[in-house]
Specification:
Oligo-1,6-glucosidase, domain 2; 3 domains; 14% strand; five-stranded antiparallel sheet; binds calcium ion; single chain; Immunoglobulin-like; TIM Barrel; alpha/beta
Length: 577
């Protein structure tokens, strides 16, 4: 890491700026609280199994997270999102929940969770937790009861359907984990729907009692003091009650697995899912300053994100897989950002998460596949490597709420695992065609010289990547030019400048690798220029014209008005608007 941060300055919290008058009309701001904490916030995603192991069993846990909250606070982020820690058979590592109101013993206790929230709040961090409501684990008592007969009190809590006359499943819907989305249940002599693993049955959101029950779960956690929810697969909650077949995609749009060969017209994005979000919003609005972010899959991510965040009656924000695929050029970035200029919704963006190949590999070295669960083309190997700080700088320039995934602040590359080391059912089923999801879930490296990089004294559930040890937190913290310190500087830059956090966004140049954004808010503008390619470019005209009267806020490399933009360069200039 030989990055030179210019003018990064000290961390400075600018919440005082949050009292500024209403937003420009182009932002179409919602009324009640014009700039609540989550708007423009940066949230840090923690995958509990892999963050820090406090009791030496090789599995990360809640006390481990609590012990590392100071690292998260030192990043300057607004809060953290914690992936599931609830009781689970762990077929999908916690995204298969068997008790919505508990903590899996592997991760600790409810008291440990309360201690985590208390410590986070003391450090000024919001706590957002995952809620996995589209499906449960088959072990959940609701499903155990529902499958027992066709006339029990929870008989319609899941999506049950008779076989076709020839015994085949009710329709052509396909599972994201491979094969039909229907599993036969001999007790009822019916099929049940599962969009993911067969042991993860889908709840029936057309049943009012199901909606009431999951909202009660939400109330349980809100009462415990959590600041918001990340909603897993939020556009798969409701299904077409007529169970109509999904139409095939045109040949040119088909992927190479069954689920990618059909348009998800009838099993996703149903109006009843949106209607449920309004019920959820009313619950959240009954508590002060709470927040929701939906995960939305699908082929038109921006359109879905807008539908789910429109106005003030749906989700606060939503993210998609828009930036979790192949490396974007400037036009691809603007294709995702431009539609928000006059929209009342609010986007969220992530370049990495627990489902995607780490961005440092996916966009950086030109190697590695795309999103683990999509059919996107792999990155172009001809693209030269760019430092991960280029992508962090780009992320911090975006208008929206941002997510940084654990290890992204260290610039960790994707881990390569042998088949024998894989844990992810998707990775095992698709080996070696897919990267699977284990390579972005290896343990967090804390101490370069410690066994298992300081994650645990015991062999971890996934091996600590030897390539990650030199990038450990202790080593990077001591290096002013490290990716860790660059990340801290960039997050601080965003906090200092409401133009970056809340302002309007206009593209001045979006041409091949060259992207120049103008962010503006209440008398201040920030020009953000990026060279997303490897070849050096001349200083773009809008940047050159503004330079003399501007303040250089931050730059990836030492630079000047006529120095041009080296490959991977990022420059932030502050102007009076
Ligand atoms: Ca542990």
């Amino acid at each position: 890491m030989a990055l030179q941060a210019v003018g990064a300055g000290a961390f400075a919290h600018t919440d005082a700026a949050m009292t500024l008058p209403a937003q420009p009309a182009t932002n179409a701001a919602p009324a009640p609280s014009a700039h609540p904490w989550w708007r423009g916030a940066v949230l840090y995603q923690v995958y509990p199994r892999s963050y820090a192991d406090s009791n030496g069993d090789g599995v990360g846990d809640l006390p481990g997270i609590t012990a590392r909250l100071e690292h998260i606070a030192a990043l300057g982020v607004d809060g953290l999102w914690i992936s599931p820690f609830f009781p689970s058979p762990m077929r999908d590592f916690g995204y298969d929940v068997s008790d919505y109101r508990g903590v899996d013993p592997r991760f600790g206790t409810l008291a440990d969770f309360d201690a985590l929230v208390a410590r986070a709040h003391a450090l000024g961090l919001k706590v957002v937790i995952d809620q996995v409501w589209s499906h449960t684990a088959a072990e959940h008592p609701w499903f155990v009861e529902s499958r027992s007969s066709r006339d029990n009190p929870k008989a319609d809590w899941y999506v049950w359907a008779d076989a076709k006359p020839d015994g085949s499943p009710p329709n052509n819907w396909q599972s994201w984990m491979g094969g039909p989305a229907w599993r036969w249940e001999p007790r009822r002599k019916q099929y049940h729907l599962h969009n993911f693993l067969p042991q993860m049955p889908d709840l029936n959101f057309h049943c009012p009692a199901v909606q009431d029950a999951v909202l009660d779960v939400g109330r349980f956690w809100l009462d415990r003091g959590v600041d918001g929810f990340r909603l897993d697969t939020a556009n798969l909650y409701a299904h077409d009650p007529l169970l109509r077949d999904n139409p095939p995609l045109p040949p040119g749009e088909r992927g190479d697995s069954p689920v990618l060969m059909q348009r998800h017209q009838f099993n996703a994005d149903q109006p009843e899912s949106l209607a449920f979000m309004q019920r959820l919003r009313r619950l959240l609005d009954a508590y002060p300053d709470r927040f929701s972010v939906g995960e939305l899959g699908g082929p038109e991510p921006v359109r879905a994100m807008q539908a789910y965040t429109e106005g003030t009656r749906h989700l606060h924000t939503a993210y998609s897989f828009a930036f979790l695929g192949p490396r974007p050029d400037a036009a691809a970035v603007m294709e995702r950002l431009a539609p928000w200029a006059d929209h009342s919704g609010w986007p969220a963006w992530a370049f990495s998460n627990h489902d995607a190949v780490r961005v440092a590999s996916r966009w950086g070295a030109g190697a590695g596949g795309s999103f683990a669960l999509s059919a996107g083309a792999p990155s172009d190997a001809a693209q030269a490597a760019l430092p991960p700080s280029t992508w962090m700088a780009l992320l911090m320039a975006l208008r929206g709420t941002l997510f940084v995934y654990q290890g992204e602040e260290l610039g960790l590359p994707q881990s390569r695992l042998a088949f024998e080391q894989l844990q992810d059912p998707y990775g095992i089923a698709n080996w070696p065609l897919s990267e699977g999801r284990d390579g972005c879930r290896t343990p967090m490296p804390w101490v370069a010289e410690a066994p298992h990089a300081g994650f645990s004294p015991a062999p971890p559930w996934l091996p600590a990547d030897p390539a990650h040890a030199p990038l450990a937190v202790d080593r990077q913290a001591a290096d002013p030019g490290s990716m860790l310190n660059t990340t801290r500087a960039l997050i601080a830059l965003r906090r200092r400048h409401p133009a970056l956090r809340l302002g309007t966004l206009t593209a001045l140049v979006a041409d091949g690798p060259l992207l120049v954004l103008r962010r503006e808010w209440q008398g201040e503008a920030v020009l953000c220029a990026f060279n997303l390619g490897a070849q050096a470019l001349p200083t773009p005209a809008p940047l050159a014209a503004a330079w003399a009267g501007a303040r250089l806020l931050w730059a990836q490399f030492a630079t000047s008005a006529d120095a041009g933009l080296a490959g991977g360069a990022a420059v932030f200039l502050g102007l009076d608007a």
